[in-house]
Design a protein that fits this description.
- The chain has two domains: 205 residues, Growth Hormone, Chain: A (Up-down Bundle); 202 residues, Growth Hormone, Chain: A.
- Helices cover 78% and strands 0% of the residues.
- The protein contains 15 helices and no strands.
- The longest helix has 50 residues.
Length: 427
């Protein structure tokens, strides 16, 4: 059983701040390492395909880690998985920081080496994310749904804003101090975050449950399963045009430089994070009953989101100036997508018991990772055969699927700690 004492202890806010700070350190370096690897190996003469391969294991291990990480968090405790994630990120950064530039420049050696380092970084990111978000269910008092909504959106929004900052910082430090010194610097930053968290956490983040079975990673909670399915389609709808199609379109069709395209996407990510953090105020201001989000809100937000890729695709087909259409459409899409994501991030915690938080959150983010992986793969293929417009129409279909699935989520009531479950006896 998860310990409940941290919820009522005076360490509640302190633990939230410590967990958030640890998550920030990992997120900042996760964003930076992406631009570091991308720029550095592109300058070494790696082909676009070889550069893409460097990130393949990162995405694949994101799926695996989310699936297994929830079980690890339940069996060994969230404190262990949080610290394990931070330590793994130190290892990943250190591997790249000590690597000899001479053999990194040889693709036959550099590609598999960097793929392994990126796999570790993907494991670190998702262990830290699962631990941090599951910990909110432990540190927030039972029934404090408003606090839970505010804290989870602040954590998620600040994470995305910092990831955008990491994009900038990685590129800046690469040009100022170089590849290896930057990685060593970031490894030191994450190590400091790990030591600080170990010293400052009070009361732990829930106790371990040695009886947790691996087969229980697949949730029997109907609301969690439905939300996970909606999350898969939601994130596929973003990445199917955002990851490959959009950057290539900005570069090859609009003629933007690499720095213009990369800078714009980084700014978009930062703005997206700010909208997520502000989601409770935005949604309550537009809700006459001023209640917490439920399944109905998730469904209508998804249907509203579908209007944006539809509008962008129709405008491009009609021959409207592509710069105005794509830039304006992407900004509007980002606002609505951030609200969708924020509501999902709240609902997964609202729909699960504290003692099941780690496993349900891990299962849910497995679906998130699968959506990202599918969207990334489809984005490259669809852009090749159908251009950005083809990517956008598939995005519309994915968003509509997310909305239709969300219609089956609990509505007209505050999310329950233990919602409707498959079979008898609940969880």
């Amino acid at each position: 059983m998860m310990a409940t004492s941290p919820r009522s202890a005076p360490h509640q806010l302190r633990n939230y701040i410590v967990v958030t700070g640890a998550y920030w350190a990992d997120t900042l370096t996760d964003g930076a390492i992406r631009t570091l690897v991308l720029f550095y190996f592109y300058e070494l003469g790696y082909s676009a395909l070889q550069v893409a391969l460097l990130f393949l294991l990162y995405e694949i291990f994101g799926v695996i880690t989310n699936l297994v990480g929830g079980w690890l968090g339940a069996r060994f405790g969230l404190t262990a998985t949080l610290f394990g994630g931070l330590a793994t990120q130190v290892l990943a950064l250190g591997m790249l920081g000590i690597a000899d530039p001479i053999w990194l420049a040889i693709p036959a050696i550099g590609v598999p080496y960097v793929m392994v380092a990126q796999a570790l970084s993907g494991i670190a990111k998702d262990l830290t994310k699962m631990s941090s978000k599951s910990a909110l269910k432990v540190v927030v008092a039972d029934g404090a749904q408003s606090t839970l909504f505010r804290w989870v959106t602040l954590l998620t929004g600040s994470k995305n804003a910092l990831k955008g900052v990491g994009f900038f910082l990685g590129a800046l430090l690469l040009s100022v101090i170089g590849f290896r010194p930057t990685l060593v610097l970031f490894a030191g930053l994450v190590l400091i975050a790990l030591i600080t968290a170990a010293l400052l956490l009070r009361g732990g983040l829930g106790s371990s449950n040695k009886q947790a079975k691996f087969r229980e990673i697949f949730s029997r909670n109907q609301a969690v399963n439905l939300l996970a399915a909606a999350r898969l389609f939601l994130f596929a709808s973003r990445d199917v045009w955002f990851v490959v199609g959009l950057p290539v379109f900005l570069r090859s069709v609009l003629g933007w430089s690499f720095w213009q395209a990369g800078g714009f996407l980084a700014i978009w990510t930062i703005g997206y994070g700010f909208v997520q953090a502000a989601a409770p105020r935005v949604l309550r201001r537009n809700d006459a009953q001023n209640k917490e989000p439920d399944g109905r809100m998730a469904a209508w937000l998804a249907f509203g989101l579908a209007a944006f890729p539809t509008g962008i695709a129709l405008a491009l087909m009609a021959g409207v100036a592509p710069t105005i259409v794509v830039v304006g459409g992407l900004l509007a899409f980002g606002v609505m997508f951030a609200l969708n994501s924020a509501v999902h991030s709240y609902l997964i915690l609202a729909y699960t018991d504290g003692e099941k938080a780690a496993m349900n959150v891990g299962f849910y983010y497995t679906a998130n990772a699968l959506g990202r992986l599918a969207g990334t793969v489809l984005s490259g293929w669809l852009y090749t055969v159908a251009g950005l417009i083809g990517c956008l129409w598939v995005a519309v279909g994915c968003v509509l699927a997310a909305g239709i699935i969300s219609l089956a989520l609990p509505i007209n009531t505050a999310p329950r700690t233990r919602p409707i479950a498959f079979g008898k006896g609940g969880d």
